[in-house]
User: Fold these one by one.
Assistant:
Number 1:
Amino acid sequence: MSAPCRYALFSIYNQRAGFTQVRRFTCIQWKSSDSLMRGGHTAVLKAMANKRGNLTLFSSRCLSGSAADAKARVRRVSIEGNIAVGKSTFARLLQSVCADWEVVAEPVSKWQNIESETSKGQGVPPQTTVSNLLQMMYQDPQRWSYTFQTYSCMSRLRTQLQPPPARLLQSKGTPVQVYERSVYSDRYIFALNMFELGCINTTEWAVYQDWHSLLVEQFGHQVELEGIIYLSAPPEKCMERLQRRGRAEEEGVKLDYLDKLHSQHERWLVEKTTEIHFEKLKQIPVLKLDASVEFKSDPEVQEQFITKVKNFFDGL
Ligand SMILES: Nc1ncnc2c1ncn2[C@@H]1O[C@H](COP(=O)(O)OP(=O)(O)OP(=O)(O)O)[C@@H](O)[C@H]1O
Ligand SMILES: Nc1nc(=O)c2ncn([C@H]3C[C@H](O)[C@@H](CO)O3)c2[nH]1
C-alpha cells in the first residue's frame, strides 16, 4: 500500500482483491499494489460512483485482459528435493512436454564463478579474480556457509523476481513457471541445516532469518509460490547419482549430509513440523513424487509423472 498512498486523494474503507471502495471520486495510477495484483505493473484504476454515493475502484485486472491479468494467470511452482535426486533431469522432462511450462534452473554456475575486481593502486590495471563459492562452502563450511546462504538466497530471489516469458503470458492453457528450488528451501532446508550442524552460528542464523523475512515480506506476492513438487528418494540413491554425476565440488559430500537434508525435506514438506514464518507457505499444496524410479529411459513412467504434474498444475 505504500506506493499508492503517495497518489491517493481518498480514504479506502473496504478492500478485497480487485475491488476497493473509496470515499471521494478520483482516478489514479496505482503502481505495484500487493493487494490488487502481482508484479510491478502500473495499472490504471478507474473510479466509479456506486449507488450509495460512494466510489468503487476497479483494477485493470478485473476489467480487461491486461498485462497484469496475464501475469497473474501464471502459476509459480518450485521443484524441491535432495542433492542429485534428479531435479534438473525432471525439470528438463517437464520443459520438453509442454510449451505452457517454463523451467528456471538453479543458478549453480553463478555460485561457481563469482567475479571480483581488485585495484592495486594508480596506474595498475584492475585485476579480475574468479572464485568458486560452492567449492569454498564445501571445503570450509564453518567459514563460508553464511556467505554462501546470502548469495544463494539473493540469486534465488533474483530468479523468482524475473517476469515470465512472453510465451507464458500469451498462453491460453495453464501457464506455469517452474523454479528449481526457491528462497524457501534456501532457508528451511539448507540454512537451517547448516545452523543445526554448527556451520552457521547463532548470530549469523539470527541475521539471516531477519533479512530473509524482511525480503520475503517486502516482495510479497512477487515471490509467492502456488505449489511445490517434492522429488523424494532414499539418500543412498541420491549418493549413487551424485557420485555418478561427478561434480568436482561435491567430492567430499558424505551420506550423512544427504541423510540430514532428506530429514529436513520430510519435516518441511511431509510431516510439516518445521517452523514456517509465512502464512501462505504453510498452506501450500505439495505433490510428492517417488524420484527413485529410473524414469529417464522409461516412457511409461514419464507419462505417469507428467499426468500427475498436469493434474497438480490444473488444481492450483
Ligand atoms: N530418475 C533418474 N533415473 C536415473 N538417473 C537419474 C534420474 N534422475 C537423475 N538421474 C541422474 O542423477 C544425476 C543427478 O541428477 P540431477 O543433476 O538432475 O540432480 P539435481 O537434483 O538437479 O541435483 P542438484 O541437487 O545438485 O541440483 C545425473 O547424473 C542424472 O543423469
Ligand atoms: N549449503 C548450501 N546451501 C544452499 O542453499 C544450497 N543450494 C544448493 N546447494 C548445493 C547442493 C549441490 O551441491 C549444489 C547444486 O544444487 O549446490 C546448496 N548448498
Note: The pocket of adenosine-5'-triphosphate (ligand 1) is lined by residues 81, 83-89, 106, 241, 244-245, 291, 294-296 (CB under 6 Å).
Number 2:
Amino acid sequence: TACSSKYVLSALHPMWQGPLVAPGGNRQSPIDIRVRKSVFDPHLKPLTPDYDPRTCSQIWNNGYSFLVEYDDTTDKSTLKGGPLEDNFRLCQFHFHWGESNAWGSEHTVDRRLFPAELHMVHWNSDKYSRFEEAVMEENGLAVIGVFLKIGKRHEGLQKLVDVLPAVRHKDSVVEFTRFDPACLLPTNIDDYWTYAGSLTTPPLTEAVTWIIMKQHIEVSHEQLAVFRSLLFTSAEEEVQKSMVNNFRVQQSLQGRTVRSSFT
Ligand SMILES: O=C1NC(=O)[C@@H](c2ccccc2)S1
Ligand SMILES: [Zn+2]
C-alpha cells in the first residue's frame, strides 16, 4: 500500500544514526519525555482507535524494520480524538528495538530506555488523499507510540512473531491477514503524552502528531529475540547483518511543550 512508502526504503540505510537533520528542523523526533515538564491539558479527548482486522494485508521487511501494512484505500481502520482534530487512517505499524534488552526504544521517559517501541502510523484522510501526500504536510500524520517491556508472552503478538522468519531478508513480503492491531495497545489508552514532531527516518518531515502511551505492553524475551533474527540485508548480499538497533538518536526539544492527558 501507499504507506509502505518508497521514502522509507530509498533514503534508508540500516544503522544510519546520522547527522541527517531535516533542513531547518526545529520539531524533530524522537525526544526524551521529561514527565515533570509535561503540561496537563484538560481539553485532550479520549483517543478512539477503530480498526478493522480485515484491512490487514501483508508484512514487508523494508531493510530497516518490518511493516505490517493495512489497506488504507477506505476509512475502515481509523483513529480520531485525543489531540487530533481530523480523521486519520491506519496505514502500517512497525517496531524499533535494540540488540539487547537494555535499549531499543526511540522515545525515552525521564531518560528511561525500553527494549522496543511500537509505532502505529496513520495519515490525515480528511485533508489528504494518500499517505505520500500527507507525509509532507504539517498535520499529515499521527503516530501512536507504545513502549515494550520484557515480561510475559504477548499472545496477540505471537501470530506476527510466527511469520517473521518468512520475511527474514530485506525486500521480502508475505501475506498477512486478519490481524487486529488493537491487541497491541495497552489496556489504558487514556493516559498519554502528545507533542508535535517528525518522522524518525528519512524524509524526517515534521508532519507527525505523536501520541505516546504512558502504559507499556509486555512481550517475552523469546518473542523479542525473533525480531532480532531479522536481517537488514537482502538474500543476495554476502554479508548478512542482523536487524537490531534500528532507532534514531534523540533530538532536542527546541522549546516544544509535551502535553499530558493525565495529571
Ligand atoms: O514513526 C516513525 N517510524 C518510522 O520508521 C518513520 C516512518 C517513515 C515513513 C513511513 C512510516 C514510518 S516515522
Ligand atoms: Zn517508527
Note: Helices lie at 6-10, 131-134, 155-163, 221-227.
